[in-house]
Amino acid sequence: MHQRVITLMLLFLFTLTVTVQGAAIAKTPPLQSEQRALSGSTEAQALEQQGRLLYGSGQFIEAAAAFNQAAQAYQTQGNTLRQALSLSNLALSYQQLGKLDESSQAIAQSLLLLQGKPDARGSSDQLSALAQALDIQGNLQLSQGQEAQALATWERVTAIAKQLGNQERLVESQINQAQALQAMGLYRRAIATLSTVLGLEPPATTTLEALKAKLITLPHVSTTAIALQSLGEALRVTGNLEQSQVLLEHSLRLAEQLQLPAIATTAQFKLGNTLRAQALADLSRNNMTLTTAVELVKESKVGRRFQGTDMALNFYQRMNEALSRYQQVASTTNATNTRIQAQLNQLSLLVETQQAAAFESLLPTVQQQINRLPLSRMAIEARVNLAQSLQKAAHSELKLQNSANGNSGQPNFRPLAAQLLATAAQQAKALKHQRTESYALGNLGQLYEQAGQWNDAQTMTQRALFLAQSMQAADITYLWQWQLGRVLKAQGQSQAAIVAYQEAVNTLKTVRKELVTTTPEEQFSFRDTIEPIHRELVTLLLDRESTAPNPENLKAARNVIESLQLTELVNFFREDCLTAKPEQIDQADPVSAVFYPIILPNRLAVIVSLPGRSLLYYATPAKEQITNERIEAIVNQLQGSLKQDNIPKSEFLPPAQQLYEWLIRPVKAELEKRHIKTLVFVLDGVLRNMPMGVLHDQTQNQYLVEQYSIALTPGLQLLGVQRRLQQPSRALIAGLSEARLGFSALPNVATELKQIQSQVSDSRVLLDTQFTNQSLQADLRTTSFPIVHFATHGKFSSQLENTFILTWDGQLNIDQLRSLLQRSQLGQKEPLELLVLSACETATGDNRAALGLAGVAVRAGARSTVATLWQVNDASSSTLMGQFYQELNKPKLTKAEALRSAQLALLRNDQYQHPYFWAPYVLVGNWQ
């Protein structure tokens, strides 16, 4: 369990170091025009030049002293402009030392001098100096977490640059604005800003070929290379990894052509990050863990190959490509900080890939360099980062050839990590940098937790938490609240642990923005970080020792699961685009029951919300020890036997009956007593890919769909409570019947569209060549359609970029679909009542693929979505859809009931009795 926190912390600092490096665009020396215009004593100028040289070599304490003396000398000379510039550079030096208060005072004095002169609109030199001071102030504000203020400051720099006609400063200020937007979690705005600066179409919506062609036409100047790097970084964070790689590679080539070694080094560094992200993202898409990949690679080296070996070797190759980038940066850069950052990333990567010999070789070098660093925030963060790698190495039992005591085997990394963290905490306290002090103390608390030293673990964690809360750093507060909950739980303090866990979940609700900005590496570990906080809290609330948890705990557990569903969708979208509504739709329907199956360690728990605000709870017996692995095996067995129509009942009925016994049987009598007609499922984990209608009641020899109407929802608070007031009267119906772009033909689509058209009086039909992105846009812009029906290939995946539907001229992703559908609703009275996606399928082998289905349903803005979990039979789909629309025309029939009737029509047809034909159709969203 504890490794999960280490992974998250490593990734956070990994991202942070890149951000700090990318922020330093403000120039330390004055502009050339200022150098020509300004004069002063030789002594003052010598001090100023000395400060620049010291700053460039990383000697920030000495640089600060030189700039401070220069500012005093210029003050004596009465040279206000030079004094202001020296104060700006003093502020920059203090910032590097982590002395943010002193930095703020210095930059405030500089700005007071520059803005207090009567000729505030004065000379170009004064305006240039003011722009530089504001630039430094923006960087300071960004480092202090004041993203909105930094953005406003850089907007002022942009205005000055326009006034001066300084194109280079203008572009730099816009790049800085984009960085502030990224820090605020507004990555899409940042990407739009940078794309405008470069004159590019949004790269995420452009083919790689078109993007490469456009890059060739960009100006060959340094600001182009810098902007490309910032845009490449933003695309990496939002998961557009191929585009990120293309931009960073072009930035690298451009920097090398212009002979700009510092910019080229940064490009190499960020390119390494992108390659690393690609490797981890590929593992995530293929549902392979990091541990499994490393083990498969080890086995392949001794000639043993297994299923997944090729995938693991590809992952290993990409990671080594990233490693070579870091090595190149470390070996070529003259900047000490950059070299250490690259080496720290090397160490963390070597731990992940279990390359013990290389780790052992590099570790002493990094230790020596960190020990020589002057007191600064960089030095503190480097110690914390190194300690995290050591913690992870200790946890993963990294075997070195030569341990610290001269014997081969497993060295004890924890004492060294503890020493590094203690030193980092002391230095952070000396610099009054609470954030890094909190990180150091929190990680130290984790070391004590791993050693079972509970009192020390609790003390350190509480100190870290106090610091995080005092500076309102919610993005790390939840980590220490979670850690405190674990420590309290381990000491048997269950109620106190519940309070800590609940506070962690509540804090997470306030930092959805930070979850949006997580990199693919962090999204890869989402199930190992954010998700366990919720699950461990639910486990505490539904204490195994309690046969009947109290109503308050049941309600709290249900709310936690709802919060997890919402958080996971935010993580999927990489944008905080969801607004939860406090009203629960289940309370507006007196004949519905909402099921929350919760997969917990060694049991399957179920909370059922019934009309009247009553909650029921039951779980599998303790003696059965229902593990996650057993649940997954049963679900996989059932899924595998449903996707072909020739699998006998003897294969799919046993798992379908087992799931029925666990999920439905314990509450069946209560459902009958309350005359429940509709079951709504908020599904968890591997269950999300399962069509609930196929669950089988062995006693009555009936499928669940024969007993109830069924609907799915990612969370009740995401739904509206309005009922459909009238039968369908207008629909946009589109489909592909011909083979297209590598996808097979769907010859019965034309029949399906005709049958729907016969049931909906006012229909607009787009078939094959008419079904293009442009025609969709034209129709949806001019007319609102309560129903939109797509009969085409599509895929639902746990990866946003791999979730799409197919049109004649390409793929339509979630964001494009949302844009089209929302445009159709602007200014229109009728909302989008129903979105139908027939012939789509969930990604094979992706246990979380249904997340993409839920994502489409929520993002499209439709009140209800009907879709298929696997690629259905073309002919049966045509029959079912015709029946579905016929049922929708019946008065007072809900959508869930209409779909059930259509499925039963297939089930009772001798030709289509197998669940392969009728089971994959699911209704997501408002079932009324």
TrEMBL record:
It holds the Pfam family CHAT. Residues 654-926 form the CHAT domain. InterPro entries: CHAT_dom, TPR-like_helical_dom_sf, TPR_rpt. This is CHAT domain-containing protein. It comes from Stenomitos frigidus ULC18.
